[in-house]
Amino acid sequence: MVLFPAHVTRYCAWPDIAYLPVTDLEPLSYALVWRREAESEPIRALAGIIRDLGPLPPASPGS
Description:
Layout: H1 8-11, H2 41-53
């Protein structure tokens, strides 16, 4: 058994894998991070898009 965050069911759906919800765990927090020396205009642009979009709502069951 391996625990995955809920968004895996939305972005990593495979027909032969079943994800079972674990309802008594707190949601996982994520952050976009990068090494300062690797910062570039494309990375800043991606960070801006992510900041503008904000978090996605959880996927509804069966979607």
